[in-house]
Amino acid sequence: MDSTAAERRHRAFLAAAQLRYPWQFRQRGRAGDSDPVAVDVPPGWYGLLEHLFEAVEQTLPAAEHGGFRWRRLRSRQGTIEVAYDGVRESVSPLVATARETAAVTCERCGRPGARREVAGSYAVSCRRDYLDRLLDRHPGGEGGARQWWTSPQPGLGGRSPATMVQSGGPPEMLVEQALRLAMPATPRLNGAHRQRLQGAWPVLREALGEGLRSLRLAEFEPARRRGATLIGLMAGEADASAQAAAVNRLARNGFSDLRLRLVGQPDLVRPARAIDPWSCMLAVEASVTIPRHQPTLPPFAR
Ligand SMILES: [Zn+2]
């Protein structure tokens, strides 16, 4: 869908909602000082918002309509941001349901999806749309992506990705190929970088224990000063609370420029199936190992 068509569809969605539930979209403020409701959501989430508007209509008694209005409905990095004025108790469970639904609903098409990263940006995507997002990062640009899409490939039994998708959903293999193509350059570390990064080993060991098997660095471009991704390879599954503790420890020890991602070693075999395919493929294809122990320097080098 081109951007004008998308915009038209967004306006139609909003106009229909305002017409049906005008009290939820009232503008606050005096004339000349209006404060319209900020709505910026992708089309895959229109349906769950329509449910939310209807649920609020059903739940709030008419007497409470006067105090209620939406203030913001936006998508931010794969989560839905909802702000409103008025009664909390009855509306907040409805909003929570909408958030939970959004977390598993593809932002572009509304089919089941998961929140996935592509080069630092997050969105909830079904497999087909995740593939599309990856192709946006194709090193050959739009032309390169189109060519890849329509060219028969030996790895696909002589078929093109386009024909594979037409015959039912993009197989894992396509997602994996697209991930590989979208990978950034493998970082090059100089002695000073390496020495500093080795300092992260004891910090993470303390937070993650023996489960931490190796550390790798990716997405590191010193000239652009954007920080880098530190990947901790874990023997088993990576759990969220251990990850949060490790992130805190890194920040307290002067490594707040590093984005930590924990990846389970078993996932490396099939990155397209992992919870975090982007980081998995970074670990496999586009990262360097940070050695565990600082090498003992010979006396003349000190
Ligand atoms: Zn989709």
Description of the molecule:
It is a single chain. The chain has helices at 3-20, 46-59, 92-102, 127-135, 141-150, 161-166, 172-182, 191-198, 200-208, 240-252, 277-285; strands at 38-40, 69-76, 79-85, 114-118, 121-125, 212-218, 228-234, 258-264, 287-289. The chain folds into three domains: 3-102, no CATH class; 121-182, no CATH class; 191-289, Beta Polymerase, domain 2 (2-Layer Sandwich). The N and C termini lie far apart (62 Å). Helices cover 39% and strands 17% of the residues. The chain has 302 residues and is an alpha/beta fold. The chain has eleven helices and nine strands. The strands form three sheets. The chain has a four-stranded mixed β-sheet. It has a three-stranded mixed β-sheet with strand order 1-2-3, with helices on one face. It has a two-stranded antiparallel ribbon with strand order 4-5. Bound molecules: zinc ion. Zinc ion is lined by residues 106, 108-109, 111, 113, 125-126, 128-129. Residues 141-167 are annotated as: Disordered.
Provide a concise account of the structure shown.
With 302 residues, this protein is α/β, with parallel strands linked by helices.
- How many helical elements? 11
Percent of residues in helices:
25-40%
Structural class: alpha/beta
Radius of gyration based on Cα positions:
24 Å
Distance between the termini: 62 Å
Mean pLDDT: 91
Proportion of beta-strand residues: 15-25%
Largest sheet data: 4 strands, mixed
Bound molecules: zinc ion
User: Got a strand count?
Assistant: 9
Shape: globular
Strand order of the largest sheet: 8-7-6-9
Count of separate structural domains? 3
Low-confidence stretches: none
Pattern of helices and strands? HEHEEHEEHHHHHHEEHEHE
